Hints:
With 128 residues, this protein is mainly β. The chain is built from two helices and eleven strands, in the order ααβββββββββββ.
Amino acid sequence: MIRIVLGLVFALQVAGAGAQNAVATDGDKYKVILENPCVRVLDYRDQPGDKTHQHHHPGFVLYALSAFERMLTLPDGKVLRRSFKAGDVMWSDAQTHIGENIGTTPTHVVIVEMKSAPVAGSGACVVR
């Protein structure tokens, strides 16, 4: 059983190994505002026409502080278009993409990336 779990953890790490950390690829846009064993909270800002480098996010919650329009290009070439209003909230599973502000307004969001699951009653987190 331990071997199966370790194998799955290794496989997940290898699968994400080629994807870059958003703060490392686009530090001019992403700022870490909190990090602990459970989550990493990012403040993201960009201007119309700005585009990110390809990067990866683990599962995350996004909270829009401004209205904006965005295009995401996935590694397989699939293109997603998203529109947000201030106050919109969304969940996303882990994702690798290139993001581009295709609207006429700046983007401002807070992103809460999941790092691990809380241990019931302990206040601590364990790696998923």
